Amino acid sequence: MTRKKHSRQPHSNSGAAGVRTLPLSKEALDALERQRALFRENFGREPGSDDLVFFSGNGSLQEPEFSAVVVGLMRRAGMPPQIIYAFQQTGFILSEANAEYFDADAREEWGRAVEEYFMLQAMEE
Question: Helix, strand, coil shares of the chain as percentages rounded to 5?
């Protein structure tokens, strides 16, 4: 899976269709605070708006904790279960808004994961 490079220019989602603000669970808040502390420890400053929340480095939030936090947030946001399943299978989220940043193989991988979700659901019925 190869992701296309794209600019990390700041942008605002205020007023964007489909954007919601959700309260975070204690676990999610704790994970974010740990990341903030690790950022300060690693870089000697507070994180800014252009800095990554989950960065690579000593002690940063890693799998499976990262996925667990993301899945919890996805569920709280009311995302469809097939999207959550596809994220768990692929490690990324594909949407109309970001599809151009993924190559054909990644888009096919996402599509197969969504189809697999529905196939598994049909088998359970």
Answer: 50, 0, 45
pLDDT tens-digit readout, 100-114: 999 999 999 999 999
> Residue 11 pLDDT > 50, yes or no?
no
pTM attached to this predicted model: 0.56
How far apart are alpha carbons 84 and 117 in whole angstroms?
A: 10
* Cα 27 from Cα 9, distance rounded (Å): 29
Question: DSSP state, 111?
Answer: H
CA 9 – CA 6 distance, rounded (Å)? 9
Compute the distance between CA of residue 87 and CA of residue 70 in angstroms, rounded to an integer.
9
The two tokens of residue 89 are 């299978």
What is the pLDDT at residue 18? 60
